[in-house]
Design goal:
By secondary structure, this protein is α/β, with parallel strands linked by helices. Helix 1 links the parallel strand 1 and strand 2. Helix 5 crosses helix 6. The longest helix has 20 residues. The two termini are 18 Å apart.
Length: 132
Amino acid sequence: MKAVLVQPPVLWTTTPPLGLAYLAGELLAAGDEVEILDANIELHSRDREAYGRLASLAREYGQESPLRRLFPAALAARLAECRPSAWKDLERHAEGWALRVLSAAPDLVGVSLHAESLLAGLALARASRRLA
């Protein structure tokens, strides 16, 4: 089996994605092939402005926001309406991550989610579904 494990931007850079590393270790021990995509550190190191915009979007529509109660499609539509440039930016990055994941032709895709990475994870899932 081939697995791709993804860490969407969590908007901090002090720790690596340890949960994914533990899971990858178990999969490797079982004889599976594993890739880890740390989109968090990649975006932080390659495009600090986009990282900042995503952080702002995540804070604005974070855990305390009533928008978090919306279904993912409704949340995406609302963000596209309220914050069009930030949402487009996130969608563009998510599409790139999805293309990388799908190009590996995995049997299993795992996405690690935290409160801060929920929007990026949802965007990645939507892009992956659309492109698959």
